[in-house]
Recover the amino acids of this structure.
């Protein structure tokens, strides 16, 4: 769970691909709910931490079902090299999530990652697209179950 600190919880999960402006109830970019995006600047650290925690819990299972972390050092180096915004306190799964769109085919090894055996033979784009859709589907299902 993300720490309840200003340094981490004040940062938005936004990745700059917002679809809520088109009427989506769940953003196709960051997977937050539309009301969370609208109210983010009014949220206190506890509310922000709850959003981050939900996103992390959903993403954690999806990332590690597709990827194996071979080297944290290589991952951190690739985040810096590609100028991916990542707070040191961010969970590794969120760092990987933010890095994936910037990795070229064949770039997993330089990022300290490799595909899980089930995904061998898939391109990075196929895995990214599948991951993004699965994350959206889980977020939408969560919204449908929990938001009145």
């Amino acid at each position: 769970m993300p720490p309840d600190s200003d340094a981490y919880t004040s940062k938005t999960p936004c990745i700059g691909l917002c679809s809520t402006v088109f009427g989506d109830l769940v953003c196709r970019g960051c997977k937050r709910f539309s009301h969370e995006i609208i109210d983010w600047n009014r949220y206190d650290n506890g509310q922000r931490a709850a959003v981050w925690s939900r996103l992390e819990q959903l993403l954690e299972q999806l990332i590690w079902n597709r990827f194996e972390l071979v080297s944290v050092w290589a991952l951190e180096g690739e985040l810096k090299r590609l100028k991916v915004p990542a707070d040191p306190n961010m969970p590794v799964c969120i760092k990987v999530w933010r890095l994936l769109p910037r990795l070229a085919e064949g770039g997993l090894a330089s990022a300290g990652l490799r595909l899980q055996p089930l995904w061998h033979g898939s391109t990075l784009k196929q895995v990214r697209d599948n991951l993004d859709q699965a994350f959206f589907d889980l977020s939408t299902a969560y919204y449908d179950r929990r938001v009145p």
Summary: The chain has one domain: 6-146.
